[in-house]
Amino acid sequence: MVFGRGRKAKQEQQTEPEDRDPVAEGPAVSAPGDLRAAAGPFDVSEVENQDGYVDLGALLIAPREGLQLRLEVEEATQRVVAVTLDMDGSSLQLQAFAAPRSEGLWDEIREQIGQSVGSQGGQVEEIQGPFGTELVAKLPAGGADGSSGYRVARFIGVDGPRWFLRGVLGGDAALDRDIAAALEDMFRQVVVVRGENPMPPRELLQLRLPRDSNAPAPLASPDLGQAPDLGQPEPGPEITQIG
Questions:
Q1: 13-27: per-residue pLDDT in tens?
Q2: Structural domain contains residue 32
Q3: pLDDT in tens, 190-201
Q4: Total domains present in the chain
Q5: For the domain that residue 158 is a member of, what is the CATH number?
Q6: Is residue 92 part of a domain?
Q7: Contacts for 7-13 with beta carbons within 8 Å, 24 or more apart?
Q8: Is residue 231 situated within a structural domain?
């Protein structure tokens, strides 16, 4: 795993021709929700040994060769609001939220994402994937040569015990299931640390720098055109790398 040290992250906007279908390769397979505890992502109570994980507070990330990790910060407060895993030109943004005991958030959040994308002139499509129902969002974007196209983000969500984990796949992984396989596997290995404190539904679980990190505090960088957010709480687009 590679960690940057305070350098501004580079992120190219994914622009595809209008006639390309998102996630065209590979069959759609639905995974029943009751398999989550066995297949992941996991609650911290379901993991016997936490050694070897990168500890980011609310999320524990399993390291992997070639993986680059970035923390995203909110400009106003400088708090860490998301973690992004970069690998082979594709990305997976992760955020964990508090959820009610009795019901999940994913159904409601998918609807809100659709409304957000629609307000920006984009489109969403529900598909069945390895984590159940997913969303593919297409937002209008211009190519470097002046041609029109769109950028694509694939939203995946899993409801766990009193938490909800959202992933946003970008780059080629948003379009190709074979390319997405490695990031999907990393999503399955994520461990969520909900904590015992009462929290309102949708409150972002607190992320932080790794405890063994000697890197300086994250600094904000310019807007890099991230995928649309689910709304509340709303993280800023600032991205930094950590060591």
A1: 344 444 444 454 433
A2: yes
A3: 999 999 999 999
A4: 1
A5: 3.40.1000
A6: yes
A7: 7/240, 7/241, 8/221, 8/222, 8/239, 8/240, 8/241, 9/70, 9/84, 9/86, 9/221, 9/224, 9/239, 9/240, 9/241, 11/91, 11/224, 11/225, 11/226, 11/239, 13/141, 13/151, 13/225
A8: no
